[in-house]
Amino acid sequence: MYKLAPSILSADFSKLGEEVEEIVNAGADYLHIDVMDGIFVPSISFGMPVMKSLRKRTDCFFDVHLMIEEPIRYMNEFKEAGADGITVHAESCKHLNRTVQAIKELGLKAAVALNPATSLSCLDYILEDLDMVLIMTVNPGFGGQKLIENTYEKVRKLREIIDGKGLKADIQVDGGITLQNVERMMDSGANIFVAGTSVFKGDKQKNVKAFKEVFANANGGHEGR
Ligand SMILES: O=C(CO)[C@H](O)[C@H](O)COP(=O)(O)O
Ligand SMILES: [Fe+2]
């Protein structure tokens, strides 16, 4: 099934609660929550207190993308703040297996993200344990960037690997996803689409519905876990 995960990084933080309710009511499947520490990525975004406040406004799936060094230090805190799924970067974990197991032990969905220049071979000894792989289609750190062309091929290769092994892991793409390129990414094998700018710029409800219509008009999509 294809899913839309609007990234709240592009929301108006002065009225975050209302904006979140608006996109959830319009049909957003996940809320994509980008946490940045200013070390792993240049920018600093927000953390647990913001998530806790939002948790009071919606029961939508919290898809938490951690762009922080050694995220294993904060797994319990993110669960308590309302995370349903946690994505950690392969590049930010000294002990990736331990970190993924810590997420799973908390009963949360576990995902690993790869930066654009990180090889798929980093997944060799962890893929079987994952609910989702996040392929970064821009360099992490900021919203509003242009999708990097060679990521279509990367997604295609990953889809072949996942299907070839008979696994059910979802493939999420994040960065520069628009109504113009989403179908090509669907054809490449991705099934969960993060969209920040292309949801929050302009009419949010209309944008969410437009993505959902593209999904509904496509046949099937990956079944997912
Ligand atoms: O992880 C991210 C940045 O590191 C964001 O999720 C991503 O950039 C979404 O924003 P946009 O759709 O505007 O590119
Ligand atoms: Fe993200």
Summarize the structure.
Helices cover 33% and strands 19% of the residues.
Task: Explain what this protein looks like in three dimensions.
This protein has 225 residues and is α/β, with parallel strands linked by helices. It has one domain (3-217): Aldolase class I (TIM Barrel, Alpha-Beta Barrel), CATH 3.20.20.70. It is 33% helix and 19% strand. It has eight helices and eight strands, in the order βαβαβαβαββαβαβαα. The chain has helices at 16-26, 48-55, 75-80, 96-105, 151-164, 182-188, 197-200, 204-217, and strands at 3-6, 30-36, 61-67, 85-89, 109-114, 132-136, 170-174, 192-195. Strands 1-8-7-6-5-4-3-2 form an eight-stranded parallel sheet. α1 runs parallel beside α8 (204-217) and α5 packs parallel to α6 (182-188). The chain is globular and about 40 Å long. Bound molecules: ribulose-5-phosphate and fe (ii) ion. The site of ribulose-5-phosphate has 23 residues, from β2, β3, β8 and α7. Fe (ii) ion is lined by residues 7, 32, 34, 65, 174, 194. Pathway: Carbohydrate degradation. Its cofactor is Zn(2+); a divalent metal cation; Fe(2+); Mn(2+).
Backbone structural class = alpha/beta
Find the CATH superfamily.
Aldolase class I
The number of distinct helices, counting runs of at least 4 residues, comes to 8
Distance between the termini: 10 Å
Taken as a percent bin, the fraction of beta residues is 15-25%
CATH topology label: TIM Barrel
Sheet with the most strands: spatial strand order: 1-8-7-6-5-4-3-2
**Got a strand count?**
8
Question: Per CATH, which architecture?
Answer: Alpha-Beta Barrel
The rough form would be described as globular
Give the radius of gyration: 16 Å
- Spell out which ligands are present: ribulose-5-phosphate, fe (ii) ion
